[in-house]
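Changelog note: in this version the structure field was regenerated for every chain. One regenerated record is shown below for reference.
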Amino acid sequence: MEVILTCFGAGAFRADRVGFEEAFCAPLCRTRCEPQDRLQMAAALSCRWCGRFGRSVASAAPRSASKAGALEALRGTGAPGASLLGRQKNPRSLAPVASSRPAAGGAHHRPLVARAGASGCPSPPRALRSLVPHPGLTVPRRRHQVWTVDFKGWFRTADGQRQEPLTVREAKSRYLLEIRLLPQQSDHAVRRVLTRLFRRHGLPSAIRVDNGAPFGGKGALGLSRLSLWWLRLGIRVEFTRRARPGDNAAHEQLHRCYKAEVLAPPAGHRHAQQRRTDRWRYDYNHRRPHEALGQKPPGRTYRASTRPWPQTLPALRYPKNWLQRRVRPHGDIKWQGRLRFVGRAFVGQTLGLKTLTPHGWAAVHLGPLLIGELHAKDAAGMRPARWQRLPHHPLKL
């Protein structure tokens, strides 16, 4: 691994696939037959790196040779990103070039390679699954149309205890509903805080969160038990794009102010830090002017939501010709005589199965939301659905 970091450079990991193969994969392939090669790298490690970029070691050298002429011609065109293509087969030469354009990746260069007459590297096949149109991010036009919820980065108080600040904000009025210091980022702790807020302020139309736990999960549509609870309450869940904190920029700016004005330095223990936080939140809501509100504090424009907290969750209703299955404690349901795993986030929920063919497959719904498909030929569980961001429905920032 030290050889990789030294010869290839950390910035070159974002180089395009073709450049990687030309400069790195082919020399590694030769190490099988030439132990005296300069890299002196194990063949197993070369297989690992070539496979990571969608290529087998055996086919790396022939493909590279077939593209050499087209890539060399492309370098002289002056097209954007062309300087990354067709470099000499020397790992050292690729690192400074890739670091100068770190955002340029294989998807950026594939059209250039195709126009030059060389076929791009095929993308690895993806499993077939249902695509659900992503609702995008709502631009709040009225109060309680969107709440933003997030965890600020953890810190330690003077007694050495770790603190996880949960922050909740009403997007339209900029009113800071809560900052609660929690010992950990758990579903139970967040649910307890939000239940108190729902009872006091009412329900919002949507909640915007990132994809991390406990807000998001790894199953169908990235849902967790917490976000599933919001859906059952009639609250739409808006997930920001992964690794894009700018999708929730106003909330991140709130975290920056909180860190600079309250956490430098932190208090002696959690209760003292919470008292300091509550004083700062009152000042933020009722004294600090906001430019977006005409230099008025958020407390002057804030009003409670008109949607009350329900005593019980609304029942899930399905058409009469659909099958209904209750998810068991281990996250599975029974369909066609076999247990099928659908996800632990759905434990205790009643799902609707719309059978499309007598013995073929069925669409799995949670209320009106499609969460996956069940296929009779699959030995495992449900094929989970995933969000699809459509070109005609971009994110509204």
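Spot check on this record: The two ends are 41 Å apart (CA to CA). Residues 147-300 form a domain with the Nucleotidyltransferase; domain 5 fold (CATH 3.30.420.10).
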